[in-house]
Design a protein that fits this description.
heterotrimer, A alpha/beta (about 325), B alpha/beta (about 350), C mainly alpha (about 290), B: about 350 residues, alpha/beta, seven-stranded mixed β-sheet, 11 helices, globular, C: about 290 residues, mainly alpha, about 75% helix
Chain lengths: ~325, ~350, ~290
């Protein structure tokens, strides 16, 4: 089966600062926030991108939705190359790719009622619906909200409810691909399950390909079929999520997995503690970006970025000295 | 100049909150944010408060440091800090305690650091009570930065907050909070804004510092894993009440209150088997303006009894299934919960 | 309850707790009432000349006395209020509308457009208003329309700059990004998502701007650059009174008091509105 979404060697580059500091040579003229990322998503599949803040995962999501400049690389949807506009931004068919934002309340226009917010996707794409009200209520019930929510304003919604409205908006035009940026950030544990259950329910019903961007490893383990671990704009490891949780190969993945605090007091585990700070994107380390914090780094790691290696069971990683 | 000196007894718990109730005046009536809250922070212990949004964590901290919103009313109760009722102190006395005997670390260190002053200047300012020389204060700042694990502290002292990464800023905030060697450190979600690898660094550091300084820590978090990792004791709050408290290991391995059980069940980290259907707690928080009768959790509880609808359970240490008062457990901390079920035969 | 009713109720409740704002509200209401119904309330024709009764002190027939031509000052003040409010209403609404559009374009559009607009705003603002008005009047001759035109041109940059700053802050917000992700056009984003969020503070600014515009009209009319005689304006009443100050203080008092009342009324009311609607100053319930 061919992939629904295919990303090949994508780079997102932002220009930096004013002309003067460029001339003065104090900082580089640009910064690569996403540094050559390849990925594919199939219909009905959930892929998670895991990484810490500043790793470029949100920028990747924005780039796929045409909201960040793409410097190099190719994106295909159903085998068709997505065109770029004059500002090097991708122009995907917005009816097919939908984005769910991280900040549930902040991503809803504050002076619109839920009803108006839900009618928006149709109006934007000039789709005349027979009965906009019916359509809005239909969408609300799709995400498990009652009719009485239709006339509320975003600030009258709780985090979980706003998240559902955001999801309803994203799904209004029946997209094929849903990109969910931190779908559970800021939600209480008791509610986070609701949102994730809803996502997997709708995925089965609509055959969505879902890309989840998160730093919460606990949910990735349950919802993702495949996962990619991002560090300073690169995927250092990707593959089947169960396989990666069982035996991570890249030292960064291993450290990240072991750092995850567990609420089970009897579960004592061997923790890999990383030294030092995450380097700045402005001063990207040479060779393997992780060598500044890696307990296994050798001279070779400081010089040349390691090529992609394949482990057993569809596991790919960039490391000379895998675990 | 420094107000009357407070008498500070050496033994006993550092912080003891008894029966504290706080209301907010709103347009719709009194919102009863905290009701009869009891909490003890023993000397040299780390106590965690667990609870979801709306449980009253933030109101509780504001009450301890006496920085409540203007529409808040203290409806009753005592906040004993080393033998003094904080609620009765004059604003002057309270100001002298804050930052000296009680310090705070916030979720976002940017809010507590002044963006236009260097780290060094701010760390010197924190020592305004000390009469030592500028050089001595500087040395002390350097020592503190080293203690919290900041590399090259001389350079960092000359930098501004926005130069530092999130993890470094939070460590600077901790260094500043511990500068006066307080007897109580209140940490309000200090690791929530940080990534997992930095989170464990901070937790480990807090544990070491607590051990070295011998202070007590009141640690607020909604992250059950972090609480389990760090705390000796835990207090579970729901909708303005304490529903369970006790030694962390006992509460987390044998939770007594249905809310605690459900909360722990919901944590995906505790579900070993991969699943697409994650557990949730059905229902919503009750209105705190029109408070329901009986147990506050009864509407979401799957085990509720007839008496739960009418009679409010008290926070008691009981042996499950008998209703008899439990003997103090091995850890020395009583395991208490506010639930009628414990009195029913299993 | 509808949203509009809700807003009115909220303003009223807030005013009850703010005596200065309430005073401003009452003052503004009185001024609006008196000027709107000037034709019915005025005891005399403001242009009616009574040469036997010049520069009279207040009497039962002429509550505020008469001017150098024996015209009833009270009637002239009431009708002068109509001129003042007409000028401020037209000038402020037109400059606000243009300012909103230009400000949003500068704040949301491409960078080159922003640069051009900002330079032109600054250029207009750098002229002293009176000099600018004198220059225009020298070209076109004194008239009320010239006054309105001058005020519009000099006020547009004030509104546009505020709108531009707010739009720039809004464009980085997630909900605007969310609209762009859905493929919304720039026009749609500005019309439905930026405008409602920048318009509310504009009305507060406009309310506080009324005294300035009224003062400007009065000033220009005082200099003889505004209304042409014999039309009454607060400025022309002051000018008439100024020449005969030794004979009678009443024209000056009568022309000055409404200016002070307008300034205080609209400023207090505007400040009260700002306290109610500015989310940064609003006290949050927990």
């Amino acid at each position: 089966m061919s992939a629904l979404l295919k990303v090949r060697d994508l780079r997102v580059r932002y220009p930096l600062g004013s002309g003067f500091s460029k001339i003065a040579g104090k900082q580089p003229a640009f910064v690569d926030v996403v540094h050559g990322v390849s990925l594919s998503i199939h219909r009905g599949e959930t892929v998670a991108i895991v990484g810490e803040s500043g790793s470029g995962k949100t920028t990747l999501a924005l780039a796929l939705c045409g909201l960040a400049p793409v410097f190099a690389g190719e994106v295909q949807i159903d085998g068709q190359t997505v065109p770029q506009d004059s500002k090097q931004q991708l122009q995907p068919d917005r009816k097919r790719v939908a984005l769910m934002f991280q900040d549930p309340v902040g991503s809803l226009s504050p002076r619109m009622t839920v009803r108006k917010l839900l009618a928006e996707p149709f109006q934007i794409h000039g789709i005349k619906n027979q009965d906009p009200d019916f359509e809005a209520l239909q969408l609300l019930s799709l995400v498990g909200l009652g009719e009485d929510f239709a006339d509320r304003y975003p600030h009258q919604l709780s985090g979980g409810q706003a998240r559902r409205v955001g999801l309803a908006r994203a799904l209004a035009l029946r997209p094929d691909i849903l990109i969910a940026d931190e779908p559970t950030a800021g939600l209480d544990v008791s509610i986070q399950g609701e949102v994730l259950n809803l996502l997997s329910h709708l995925q089965q019903e609509m055959g969505l390909g879902i890309l989840i961007i998160t730093h919460n490893l606990n949910i990735v383990r349950h919802v993702a079929d495949r996962m990619a671990i991002m560090y300073l704009g690169r995927f250092v490891e990707q593959g089947d999520s169960e396989q990666i949780f069982r035996s991570p190969r890249h030292p960064y993945t291993a450290a990240l997995l072991s750092a995850n605090p567990s609420a089970d007091p009897s579960a004592q585990k061997q923790r890999i503690e990383l030294q030092g700070e995450v380097p700045s994107l402005l001063h990207r380390p040479s060779g393997c970006e992780f060598h500044t914090r890696c307990p296994r780094a050798q001279q070779q790691c400081r010089e040349v970025f390691p090529a992609l290696s394949e482990g057993p069971g569809q596991q790919f990683y960039h490391c000379y000295h895998p675990m | 100049m420094n107000g009357p000196v407070l008498e500070i007894p050496v033994n006993g718990p550092v912080l003891e909150i008894c029966d504290l109730s706080i209301n907010y005046q709103t347009d719709h009536g009194a919102l009863r944010a905290l009701r009869n809250v009891n909490l003890t922070v023993p000397k040299g212990k780390i106590v965690g408060i667990v609870g979801e949004s709306g449980c009253g964590k933030s109101t509780l901290i504001s009450a301890i440091i006496r920085l409540l919103a203007p529409n808040a009313r203290i409806a009753g109760g005592v906040v004993q800090f080393r033998g003094n009722d904080l609620l009765k102190l004059s604003p002057e006395q309270m100001r002298n305690l804050r930052g000296d005997e009680i310090s705070m670390v916030f979720q976002d260190p940017m809010t507590s650091l002044n963006p236009v002053l260097t780290i060094g200047r701010q760390m010197a300012d924190v020592q305004h009570r000390s009469s030592s020389s500028r050089a001595a204060k500087n040395t002390r700042s350097l020592q503190m930065l080293e203690r919290v694990g900041i590399a090259d502290p001389e350079t960092q002292l000359r930098r501004y907050p926005h130069h530092l990464s999130g993890g470094m800023r939070q460590r600077v905030a901790i260094a500043m909070a511990l500068m006066a060697e307080p007897s109580l450190l209140i940490a309000d979600e200090p690791t929530t804004a940080l990534d997992a690898t930095l989170e464990v660094q901070i937790i480990k550091r807090l544990r070491e510092l607590q051990h070295d300084f011998g202070c007590s820590i009141l640690f607020i978090s909604h992250h059950l894993g972090v609480i389990a990792e760090l705390c000796d004791e835990v207090v579970v709050m729901y909708a303005g009440e304490v529903v369970e408290s006790g030694a962390m290991r006992e509460v987390f391995s044998a939770p007594q209150h249905p809310y605690t059980q459900k909360l722990l069940d919901c944590d995906p980290a505790r579900i070993a088997q991969k699943t697409r259907r994650l557990p949730v707690i059905e229902g919503n928080l009750p209105s705190l303006v029109h408070l329901p009768e009986g147990c506050i959790f009864k509407d979401r509880c799957t085990l509720s009894l007839p008496r739960c609808a009418t009679e409010r359970p008290r926070l008691l240490g009981r042996l499950p299934g008998s209703g008899q008062t439990a003997p103090v457990s091995v850890s020395g901390t009583p395991h208490r919960s506010a639930c009628h079920l414990l009195e029913e035969p299993a | 309850m509808s949203k509009a009713q809700n807003t009115v109720l909220r303003i009223f409740n807030a005013l009850k707790k703010d005596p200065l704002g309430m005073a401003g509200f009452i003052l503004v209401s009185i001024i609006l009432f008196l000027t709107v119904f000037a034709a019915w309330l005025a005891p005399h024709d403001p242009l009616e000349i009574d040469v036997y009764n010049r520069l009279a002190s207040p009497t039962a027939a002429h509550w505020l006395g008469t001017d150098q031509l024996g015209r009833d000052i009270l009637s002239r003040v009431l009708f002068g209020g109509q001129v003042a409010l007409k000028v401020s209403l037209i000038a402020i609404s037109v400059s606000m509308a243009i300012g909103l559009v230009l400000g949003m374009l500068a704040g949301f559009g491409p960078r080159w457009l922003d640069r051009i607009l900002v330079v032109s705003f600054d250029t207009v603002r750098s002229f002293p208003t009176i000099m600018f008005a004198l220059a225009i009047v020298a070209l076109t001759g004194p008239s009320l329309n010239t006054v309105i035109g001058v005020i519009i041109i000099t006020s547009i940059p004030v509104y546009a700059r505020v709108v531009r700053t707010q739009t720039q802050a809004l464009r980085e917000r997630d909900f605007i990004l969310a609209e762009r992700a859905m493929g919304a056009s720039m026009f749609r984003i500005l019309r439905y998502h930026v405008l409602p969020n920048v318009a509310a503070p504009m009305f507060i600014l406009a309310s506080m701007d009324v005294p300035a515009v009224v003062g400007m009209e009065a000033g220009l009319s005082f200099l003889g650059l505004g209304v042409s005689p014999p039309t009454a304006s607060w400025g022309s009443i002051l000018n008439d009174g100024y020449s005969y100050l030794r004979n009678s203080p009443w024209p000056i008092i009568a022309g000055g008091i409404p200016l002070i009342a307008v300034t205080l009324g609209f400023t207090f009311f505007g400040e009260a509105l700002r306290d109610i609607f500015d989310p940064k100053l609003r006290r949050k319930d927990p």
